[in-house]
Design a protein that fits this description.
2 domains, N-(1-d-carboxylethyl)-l-norvaline Dehydrogenase, domain 2, single chain, 3-stranded mixed β-sheet
């Protein structure tokens, strides 16, 4: 059953069962919440259905079956389609329901959709997440939540089944915080290859260099969590260059609305675009480092047991 600290145990509709969404939904399921799920591909729901989730054949069926709807989708346009299409969720949710969007989204769009939701007394929270697939698997995500205080009070125990909740302020601020953190993430990802190659070409072993970076002012999430994807040579296919470019465009839109110049961000976006042009938009995010490897004519392979983070705690090892 849901945690004793939660006084609200809604039926939860969950739409969007990708790399992140399916594992987030599974965390809710492990806490005893009843789930009704929908995705473009029923196969994405297989494990959830095996553990008791109900399949909704349409967006409308999912929405009308729940008191709390959670969406976790690739792009803002997908959120808009799911919520406002002819058979969209905002038409189908029961009056007084709550919608939490966990997509990395455009805060302006969330506010626009909120004006529609208000007409049916549907409360809205934007709650994008960070922490990668392994964070989703182990319910160790960081969740940036924006919304009215009473609504956040109501939904926080549910969100805590997936990780740590940081209350960011009014509706839309969750996505503002997420975009700032992604802006810094992409900047670190774009430069980590430069640092590693610089040290290697100067005669430092990669193993020593990596240890030094992690024990210095050069430390970062990218250095600890993402560098192994470069060392292993797969460049993290769990997050595509297409998604990087989408988020960087959202960062740019936010910066323009706020009147903040982002010259470093512009350079970072250009590097990711170059990587996408060269290796394809569906290639892993850290192909931005492969640009440097190819330019120098060497690689950054390092022997080690670098288990891909999306395989940590796989079906065969995950506990109930």
């Amino acid at each position: 059953m849901p945690s004793a600290t939660s006084s609200w145990t809604p039926i939860i509709g969950f739409i969007g069962l990708g790399n992140m969404g399916a594992n987030m939904a599974r965390s809710l399921q492990k806490e005893g919440y009843r789930l009704v799920v929908h995705d473009l591909h029923r196969s994405a729901a297989e494990e959830l259905l095996e553990h008791g989730a109900e399949w909704a054949p349409s967006i409308a069926d999912c929405a009308q079956s729940c008191q709390l709807l959670i969406t976790s989708l690739p792009k803002p346009v997908d959120v808009e389609t799911v919520m406002t299409g002819e058979m969209g969720a905002l038409r189908s949710l029961p009056e007084g329901a709550l919608w939490v969007d966990m997509t990395t989204n455009d805060s302006q769009l969330i506010k626009e959709l909120d004006t529609i939701a208000i007409r049916r007394s549907i409360a809205v929270v934007d709650a994008p997440v960070t922490g990668a697939v392994d964070g989703a698997i182990h319910a160790r995500l960081t969740i940036f939540a924006g919304g009215a205080e009473d609504t956040l009070n109501r939904v926080q125990p549910v969100l805590e089944a997936m990780g740590r909740v940081i209350r960011c302020g009014q509706l839309g601020t969750g996505n503002a915080v997420k975009l700032v953190t992604n802006y810094l993430w992409f900047a670190h990802a774009a430069v980590i290859g430069e640092g590693l190659l610089l040290g290697k070409q100067a005669g430092v072993s990669l193993e020593v260099l990596w240890d030094a970076i992690k024990s210095s002012v050069g430390d970062s999430f990218v250095a600890r969590h993402d560098a192994p994807s470069i060392f292993a040579g797969h460049y993290d296919p769990s997050f595509s260059l297409a998604l990087c470019l989408k988020d960087l465009a959202l960062c740019d839109d936010l910066a323009r609305r706020c009147g903040v110049p982002t010259p470093v961000g512009d350079t970072v976006a250009d590097r990711f675009q170059q990587a996408a042009d060269r290796y394809g938009e569906q290639s892993g995010e850290l192909h931005v480092a492969k640009l440097l490897e190819d330019a120098v004519g060497t690689d950054l392979r390092l022997e080690g047991d670098f288990t891909p983070h999306w395989e940590v705690g796989s079906k065969s090892t995950r506990s109930e």
